[in-house]
Each structure stands twice: as structure tokens, then as C-alpha cells.
């Protein structure tokens, strides 16, 4: 390495920064022994700086949980973070591994931006390829010296044209793989030090989460023409809160089936009632073949827009897992516990501080069996045709989205002619009941036991009417969802 670049370069362990150029001068002279007062002052300054950093990271987390778009988060960085890290320019780029390119996606600078959005160059020709491979940040504290020894670096020359003299770069990692980069650049020479690295690593982790979530929602929008048309209409309106609410409601209603398909040997009935304009419950039945289907209900933490958006991901995950099993020829032996495991993996890698309860059932009339798996959900109920006895199948797994290492187990029970399976969310058993009490699981079991034999629509309609009377016109406290499945073999 040339001598003017060796100065300040260290071979750091993984995830520690590569530093090229001089480090900022330390406030303590070499060989000087700090007094207690000096140490206390330095410690106090460190505590204040870390406090500001944690406060800024908390603000980013809050915006992520509200579903704020990536571009808005990046603009917030540019406008609000100068008190924790020096910069005159912030930029973000992605890696396209199929095309083997690095492309600029967003940048803001105090000067005229020289690198326009969409500017791309080959990954193999960029020094960033090594940072992506190692997952390490890099500090260049003298861009003029750097470009003298790498004259082929067009990006560095663009930065110099914007009067930048120092650069701090961090890969954005998802599951250990770099998906892009976050850049901080300063017009001050030797602007960056080790003190900025830990903060940048935390920040890059949050930005990587926002990038991954944005890509998932973009894929969903690409496959839904109705959503795209609604997006174009909503973009013409000027009131953002109304736009977001209308869009989320349309997405969610597209996930809730208006009616359930016919399946030989099986009858279905349902009702769905959100507590607000949009809710956080989900239900569906996916046909696997003659006399076989997957039925599931799910309930996101809270309700409203955040819960509804989370459930778009849950629905996509369920359907994708079932489709992949069918393409592999495994539809007839689909495993509900494996479905929950796949959905849990997607939620934990895409969201923070969000969880979902769920119950999933595989109904197989040819074998006369019912396979159930649960994730922190209220127990499934089975009403036996013989005698009207109601069995309670307790959920054994933890809610989805809490622990990426969670495991789920199957429970297999007989399911014979006339038997009725009831899946529901906790908005049913926590609904108002008699004497200011909750409706409760015991009351639901009693109502199911007393229900006359026949199509499940009768029981579901009676339950919905009973809850509506108890509400007395009051607003719902939680979303309500019921899904009933009855084994009714054709003669």
C-alpha cells in the first residue's frame, strides 16, 4: 500500500472498519496521564454522545414500526443526524447480484449531487466488492490521496467534485449477505474515527430492515393489479393519512375471502369483523385436492394499519409455502407445523417488535384425520357429531415473530362424518357478555355443543347475531374472526 495511504490503516477483525487515511487527532496528547477531572469530563461527553445516538436510533425504529417508507427515513437521516455524526452528504446504493452491479438509489448533498439515481458500475471493478464480501465498514479520511492511487475510481472523483474529503461506508447486511451500502461523506478531511463505527453499524442494520421490507411490499404490489390501480388513484390525492388508510383497507380486504370455495366432503362458514376500518385478523382456506384443504386463522398484535400491513406478509407467506409444497408434489402430506415455521422465519427477519398468533389445520377426509398446529393462539374446538361433545385442542407453540428459533408441533386427531372444527381469534371470547363479563371460552364451547347438526353457516350466523346483540351498538375492542369446517361426505 502506498505510504500516504498506509498512515492510519489497520487490519481490523470482522465487522470492524478498514481505515484509510489519517485518524482525527485525539484530544489527549501521547504520554499525558489524564487527571480524574479530565477522565470524568471525557466520560460525561461519551455518555451524552451515546445518549444522542440511542435517541436517534429509537426514532428510526419508531418510523419503521409505523411503516414509514425508506426514502422518508433517509431524508430524516439527512435532516436530523448532524449532531451525532459529521456529514455533508448521505447516499444509499443497492447490489444487483444478477447483473453484478452496484446502483445508486438515493443521495442528498449540501452541494450539487454529481452521482444521479440509477448510476451503476460493475461490482467486480469496485473496491466495495471486498467490503460486501467481508461485511466490514470502511473509513477513507483523505479522498484526494485515495484517488491518486485509484485514478480509475469515477465515484471518488465525483465526490471530490462535490467538495467531499472524507468518506464512511457501511454494508447493509441481511442474514449475513450484503444487499447494499450506506455512505456518509464530509467536506472535512479526517472527519471519521472508530467512535462513529458502532453507531453506523446499528443504523445500517435498521436501514437494511427497511430495504428488505420495502422489497417485499414492492413484490406484493407488482403481483396485484388492483393495488397498482388504487396506488395510482391514491397518488393523485393530497391527504396522506387518508391515502394510507384507503390503501391498507383495500389490501386487507383482498386477503379476506368473500366466500369460501366448495370442496367435496367439506363445508365451510366464516365471518370477519374488524374493530376499525381495517384490522389485524386473517383467515383463509387453501384447497389441496379432493377432500383435502388447509384452513388457518391468524391475529396480529393490535389492529389498524400496522397490523393490516403485517398480515399482508403473513398471507403471502402462507400461500407461498402451500404453493411450494404443491409444486414439489407434497400437497397431500402438507405439514401445518412446517407452515408456521416458514411464516415465523419471514416475520422475524422482516419486522421488529411485532408478533402474530395463528392456528393452522390440515383436513384430510380420505384418511378421516385432522392435523392441527398452533402458535400462541386460542384453542381450536371440535364438535363431535356423536353426542355433541366439544373437544379443546390447545395451542402449544409461541406466537410467530418472537423467536426465529421457535419450533412448532402437530397434533393429529380423528375427524369423522358430521364433525365440526371451529377456529377463531381472541376477539370472540373477549367480546362483551352477560353482567359486564367477557363472552369467554366456556360460553363458546357451550354454544357449539348446543348447536343443531347441519351446515356450519347456521352456527356461525347465530354466533354473530349473539355477539351483535351483546355489543349494543358500542365500538368493538378487537377484531373478530371465525372459521368453521364441517366434514359432510356426499352420499
Key traits:
491 residues; alpha+beta; Beta-Lactamase; Phosphatase 2c, domain 1; 3 domains; seven-stranded mixed beta sheet; five-stranded antiparallel beta sheet
Write up what this structure looks like.
- A hairpin with a 2-residue loop joins strand 6 and strand 7 (177-186).
- It contains 14 helices and 17 strands.
- The radius of gyration is 28 Å and the shape is elongated.
- The model is unreliable at 4-14 and 25-32 (pLDDT under 50).
- The strands form 3 sheets. The protein has a 7-stranded mixed sheet, sandwiched between helices.
- It folds into 3 domains: 3-23 and 35-215, Beta-Lactamase (2-Layer Sandwich), CATH 3.30.450; 224-255, no CATH class; 256-487, 4-Layer Sandwich (Phosphatase 2c, domain 1), CATH 3.60.40.10.
- With 491 residues, the protein is of the alpha+beta class.
Amino acid at each position: 500500500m502506498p505510504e500516504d495511504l498506509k498512515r492510519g490503516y489497520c487490519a481490523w477483525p470482522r465487522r470492524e472498519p478498514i481505515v484509510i487515511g489519517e485518524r482525527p487527532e485525539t484530544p489527549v496528547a501521547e504520554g499525558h496521564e489524564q487527571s480524574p477531572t479530565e477522565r470524568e469530563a471525557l466520560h460525561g461527553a461519551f455518555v451524552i454522545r451515546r445518549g444522542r445516538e440511542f435517541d436517534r436510533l429509537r426514532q428510526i425504529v419508531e418510523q419503521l414500526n409505523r411503516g414509514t417508507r425508506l426514502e422518508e427515513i433517509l431524508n430524516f437521516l439527512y435532516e436530523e443526524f448532524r449532531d451525532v455524526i459529521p456529514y455533508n452528504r448521505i447516499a444509499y446504493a443497492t447490489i444487483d447480484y444478477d447483473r453484478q452491479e452496484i446502483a445508486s438509489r438515493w443521495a442528498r448533498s449540501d452541494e450539487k449531487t454529481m452521482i444521479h439515481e440509477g448510476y451503476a458500475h460493475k461490482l467486480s471493478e469496485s473496491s466495495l466488492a471486498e467490503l460486501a464480501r467481508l461485511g466490514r465498514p470502511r473509513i477513507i479520511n483523505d479522498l484526494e490521496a485515495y484517488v491518486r492511487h485509484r485514478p480509475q475510481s469515477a465515484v471518488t472523483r465525483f465526490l471530490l467534485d462535490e467538495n467531499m474529503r472524507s468518506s464512511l461506508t457501511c454494508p447493509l447486511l441481511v442474514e449475513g449477505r450484503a444487499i447494499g451500502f450506506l455512505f456518509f461523506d464530509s467536506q472535512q478531511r479526517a472527519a471519521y474515527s472508530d467512535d462513529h463505527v458502532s453507531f453506523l453499524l446499528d443504523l445500517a442494520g435498521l436501514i437494511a430492515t427497511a430495504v428488505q421490507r420495502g422489497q417485499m411490499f414492492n413484490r406484493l404490489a407488482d403481483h396485484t393489479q388492483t393495488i397498482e390501480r388504487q396506488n395510482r388513484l391514491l397518488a393523485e390525492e393530497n391527504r396522506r393519512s387518508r391515502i394510507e388508510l384507503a390503501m391498507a383497507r383495500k389490501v386487507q380486504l383482498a386477503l379476506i375471502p368473500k366466500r369460501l370455495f366448495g370442496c367435496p366432503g367439506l363445508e365451510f362458514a366464516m365471518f370477519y369483523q374488524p374493530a376499525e376500518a381495517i384490522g389485524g385478523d386473517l383467515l383463509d382456506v387453501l384447497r389441496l385436492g379432493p377432500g383435502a384443504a388447509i384452513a388457518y386463522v391468524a391475529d396480529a398484535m393490535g389492529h389498524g394499519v400496522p397490523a393490516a400491513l403485517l398480515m399482508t406478509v403473513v398471507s403471502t407467506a402462507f400461500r407461498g409455502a402451500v404453493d411450494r409444497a404443491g409444486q414439489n408434489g407434497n400437497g397431500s402430506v402438507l405439514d401445518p407445523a412446517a407452515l408456521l415455521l416458514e411464516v415465523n422465519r419471514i416475520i422475524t427477519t422482516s419486522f421488529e417488535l411485532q408478533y402474530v398468533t395463528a392456528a393452522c389445520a390440515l383436513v384430510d377426509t380420505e384418511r378421516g384425520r385432522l392435523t392441527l398446529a398452533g402458535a400462541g393462539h386460542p384453542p381450536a374446538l371440535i364438535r363431535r357429531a356423536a353426542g355433541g361433545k366439544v373437544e379443546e385442542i390447545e395451542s402449544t407453540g409461541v406466537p410467530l415473530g418472537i423467536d426465529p428459533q421457535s419450533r412448532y408441533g402437530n397434533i393429529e386427531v380423528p375427524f369423522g362424518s358430521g364433525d365440526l372444527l371451529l377456529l377463531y381469534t381472541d376477539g370472540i371470547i373477549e367480546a362483551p357478555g352477560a353482567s359486564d363479563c367477557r363472552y369467554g371460552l366456556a360460553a363458546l364451547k357451550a354454544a357449539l355443543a348446543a348447536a343443531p347438526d347441519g351446515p356450519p353457516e347456521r352456527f356461525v350466523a347465530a354466533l354473530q347475531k349473539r355477539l351483535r346483540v351483546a355489543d349494543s351498538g358500542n365500538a368493538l375492542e378487537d377484531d373478530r374472526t371465525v372459521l368453521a369446517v364441517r366434514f359432510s361426505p356426499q352420499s
